[in-house]
Design goal:
With 402 residues, the chain is mostly helical. The chain contains 20 helices and no strands. Helix 14 packs across helix 15.
Length: 402
């Protein structure tokens, strides 16, 4: 646009020279001369005005020129004050946030995203995450994660949690598969150690029983009885021994929550387990697996969105769309969070703006502002050239008519 405006000014100058040269032989060219002459005046005046905003015209230190470089600090303070008084006020932010349905927008985006919705954002964010994960020292980062996880586990009282979980399992009947597995394991162990049981009975039986062969019959009876007991326990959920086992689980759950001595033993076992090298190695492997999964998602977010992660996000979106109470709670939380940020950090944001502008050198702020509004300013030059020419033409018409 600067080239266009300057080129138009040069065209007017060329027209003026041609019209002025040929005007004696062709008086009608006086209208063209008047137009071109006034257009040059208008174009030069607007060139001076536009240039004076950002620098000294022709490098001459004319007063009241290079306005932006000379007043950049005041411009930064004024801009910061404008932001503070018109945007970063809690009441203004709250009023602007009130009609926004953030949860609804997220729900629509997750359940039915438009084509390539957020693709650029996902790719940019994913690239940032991947670079961060690859740039950090894996060993050091893994050590930090492992230390944080270990500290968190040590600080957590696991005995009451285990007691609550066990109590909930029994109350909801989810302990039944555990008992069934224990019964099946016992039946398998009994069958697998048949010879060992017979040998024990034979060794413990007296000489008379061994001589008469009754030890074999006793062993058969013992094994058969145990097998029938286990089969009855597996078949009948109200078997007395199953009931006793459930009662024992309930008592154990209560002891985990209320027995101080048992809680100390459980916590001691937990600490020993955490300190075990095998557990430390497992935590290392767990972090590496998590880091690898994050890197795979970050490097190919579109594929991740088509996999289990995408399905989870779509389910979250469906929940947000169906549960308006949850959506209202999320919207309220977001609104309060943004208002709180404006109230707590508004002055810091304003100070950041003013200090950033103050830290720019004059050439930087001039270049940035001119790049933002320079195109429109060059249109001013074009308009000034044309309007000036039209005014000059009108004056010449009036002059000829008089």
């Amino acid at each position: 646009m600067r080239v266009v405006a300057t080129g138009l000014l040069l065209v007017m100058a060329a027209l003026y020279v041609v019209a002025r040269t040929l005007e004696p032989a062709r008086p009608g060219l006086g209208y063209l001369r008047a137009f071109a002459e006034a257009a040059m005046v208008g174009g030069l005046a607007d060139w001076f005005a536009v240039t004076a905003l950002f620098r000294h015209p022709l490098g001459l230190p004319i007063p009241h020129t290079a306005i932006v470089p000379r007043n950049k600090d005041r411009i930064g303070e004024t801009l910061a004050l404008f932001l503070r008084t018109n945007f970063l006020i809690a009441s203004v932010v709250a009023r602007r946030m009130r009609p926004l349905d953030v949860a609804g927008g997220v729900a629509r985006w997750l359940t039915d995203p438009p084509e390539d919705a957020g693709g650029r954002f996902r790719r940019g964010a994913s690239k940032l995450v991947a670079q961060a994960l690859e740039g950090l020292d894996p060993a050091r980062l893994g050590g930090l994660v492992k230390a944080a996880a270990g500290t968190r586990l040590r600080e957590t009282q696991v005995a009451p949690i285990l007691g609550q979980l066990l109590n909930a399992m029994v109350a909801e009947g989810r302990h039944a598969p555990l008992l069934d597995s224990a019964i099946r394991w016992s039946a398998g162990a009994l069958e697998g150690n048949d010879a060992l049981i017979r040998q024990i009975v034979h060794d413990r039986a007296g000489a008379v029983l061994r001589w008469t062969g009754l030890d074999e019959a006793l062993a058969d009876r013992l094994i058969a009885g145990l097998q029938k007991l286990l089969a009855d326990m597996a078949e009948h959920s109200d078997h007395p021994l199953r009931v006793r086992a459930e009662e024992g689980l309930v008592r154990f759950a209560d002891d985990l929550r209320n027995d101080a001595a048992l809680r100390v033993r459980v916590e001691t076992m937990k600490d020993e387990l955490i300190a075990n090298p095998a557990m430390q190695h497992w935590l290392d492997g767990l972090w590496e697996q998590a880091r690898g999964a994050l890197l795979r998602i970050a490097r190919d977010p579109e594929r991740a969105m088509r996999g289990p992660l995408g399905e989870v996000l779509r389910q979250i979106g469906g929940t947000l769309r169906a549960d308006r109470r949850l959506a209202t709670t999320i919207n309220r939380f977001v609104r309060r969070a943004v208002v709180g940020i404006a109230a707590d950090y508004g002055d810091a944001i304003v100070r950041l703006v003013s200090e950033t502008v103050r830290g720019w050198d004059a050439a930087t702020i001039t270049r940035r502002l001119e790049n933002q509004v320079g195109r429109d300013l060059q249109y001013i030059r074009v308009n000034g050239t044309i309007v000036g020419g039209l005014v000059g033409l009108a004056i010449h018409v009036v002059d000829v008519a008089i």
